[in-house]
Amino acid sequence: MEQLKETPLFGRHLERNALMAPFGGWNMPIQYEGILAEHRWCREKAALFDVCHMGEFFYRGDFAAGGLENVFTFSVASIPKGKSRYGFLLNEQGGVIDDLIVFRLAEDGAMIVVNAATADNDFAVIRSRLKGGADFVDGSAETGKLDPQGPLAREVVTGLLGPEIASIPYFRFITMDILGVKAIVSRTGYTGEMGYEIFLPADRTAELWDILLKDPRVKPAGLGARDLLRLEMGYSLYGNDIDETITPLEAGLEAFVDFGKEFIGKDALLRQREAGRKRSKVAFRVGSRRSPRHHHGIWSGDRRVGVTTSGGFSPMLGCGIGLGLVSPEAAAAGTELTVRHENVSMQATVCGLPFYQGGSVRK
Amino acid sequence: MSKMYYTKEHEWVKVEGNVATVGISAYAANHLGDITFVELPAKGKTVKQFEVLCAIESVKAASDIYAPVSGTVVSVNEELNGRPEIVNESPEDAAWMATLRITDPSEVGNLMDPDQYDEYQKEL
Q1: Is A61 inside a domain boundary?
Q2: What is the pLDDT of residues A222-235, one digit of tens each?
Q3: What ipTM was assigned to the predicted interfaces of this complex?
């Protein structure tokens, strides 16, 4: 087995007695004091996530001439400087190789932020599509990333790092000095709460971690809480809700696909759009505190109509919630379904997203 | 006079006369993490020793709970329906799950006493 990688904060997690587990090739903190307590802290105060495992690639050059413009499902060249955009890298069949965010750093520069488990392959696929004349480097090892997230995140981060952070709108970022080094502070996240993703040199992340955690309003939260928080928002998790066998159309993410431009997998998506999808993303609430989990069967009466892709207990709703892929006719809001696994069956009702409506993400 | 015993699957059972009170150990609660749901057994249900009695779910996983002794379910702790977190707060006391009328008192010979269970945990 390949050696698990460690973030610069590995020692900090051990000091806090975090429960560690492998995630995407990294030894990551799953929880510190407990998943539910960390989830609540993020919904009410400010939680801090170590997400240094994520990948960061840097592109410098003309987007069209260098070839990057025709890689993703969205245009990079049309992102205004200081803004970021979410979308996909697809395979030729239209399946999702990764979901990612591109940050427009400069007229001729961009940072591409990808998932940890897929980073090496993403880099190879993107590089194979470039035409030369552009610089393209994998800066993942040198780049750290900390996410302070929660309704108090603005107050805390602005107070500790600088007043210019207070006015950053959603899906925009600024470049600023933190600890005397250049950092990117972005108003994005994966929790449904207002918050930031801070990119800085990996060897300085421990200092920033310590500074943020000295504030009593901030507590560390692990990947367990992060998964619950994103699930309550209905955000897709790569490897569960989307993967190389699932297209963005099936996953209900066509809003992030721009058919007005070229991209890898476009022909396959056009054919799927023409022929009609065979399965659709569905969100559902369970009628009890039972948790659906990944890969449970979804039934309509005595007919199996699909499979769950994510599931868990929502502390905010007080019931089980889940996402799945089902035959399109079973995906209409209000449809009554049954989730089955071994001898357990759960009544579920198709609903809209987000599951949790009270988040501070756009405040 | 009551006596406490444990199973290898981390249930505890407190035996008083022919009544067994059943729950999961602090070790189990700690390993499962935050408990979000307890499926209590039906009153009157009859189980054999080490058969599935009921089930529990945490933020991480779902697990079966096995009967430490054979018997018939007499009562269940309905408090756990609304507040399953009691299992984390007080696993070996307030979070009892069911009481059973014991069929065969000699079955406690298949269980561990608290000292043996301490030793058993250290080996895990």
Answers
A1: no
A2: 999 999 999 999 99
A3: 0.90
Q: Does B124 map to a domain?
A: no
The average pLDDT across A244-268 equals 98
| Mean pLDDT computed over B33-44 | 97
| Residue-range definition of the domain harbouring residue B68 | 3-119
Long-range contacts of A97-104 (CB under 8 A, 24+ apart): A97/A121, A97/A122, A97/A125, A97/A244, A98/A122, A98/A238, A99/A236, A99/A238, A99/A242, A100/A72, A101/A188, A102/A72, A102/A74, A102/A76, A103/A173, A103/A184, A103/A186, A104/A76, A104/A79, A104/A80
- Residue A288 and residue A147 share a domain: no
Of A35, A288, A291, the CB nearest to B33: A35
Tell whether the model's pLDDT for residue A1 goes beyond 80.
no
| The pair of three-digit structure tokens given for residue A44, joined into one six-digit string | 């009410």
Say whether both A219 and A283 belong to one domain: no
Predicted model pTM: 0.95
**In-domain check, residue B15:** yes
Residues of chain B with C-beta less than 8 angstroms from the C-beta of A312: 59
Whether residue A313 and residue B62 make contact (CB cut-off 8 A), yes or no, is no
DSSP string, A87-109: EEEE-TTS-EEEEEEEEEEETTE
Residue ending a domain, choose from A164, A199, A232: A232
A 3-42: CB under 8 A from B: 31, 34-37
Which CATH number covers residue B69? 2.40.50.100
Is the CB of A313 less than 8 angstroms away from the CB of B33?
no
| Domain range enclosing A343 | 278-353
Q: Do A289 and B57 touch (CB under 8 A)?
A: yes
Query: Structural domain tally of chain A?
Result: 2
Please tell me the predicted confidence (pLDDT) of residue A363. 85
Burial level of A171, CB count in 10 A (0-12/13-18/19+)?
middle
The strand pair at A218-220 and A46-50 is best described as: parallel
DSSP structure class, residue A177: E
State whether A218 and A334 are in the same domain: no
Give the best residue of B34, B51, B78, B81 to mutate against chain A (max A CB count within 10 A): B34
Confirm whether A339 is domain-assigned.
Answer: yes
**Domain CATH number, residue A328:** 2.40.30.110
Which chain B positions have a beta carbon within 8 Å of A228's beta carbon? Answer: 59
Looking at the structure of chain B, the number of domains it has is: 1
For residue A224, the chain B residues in CB contact (below 8 A) are 33, 59-60
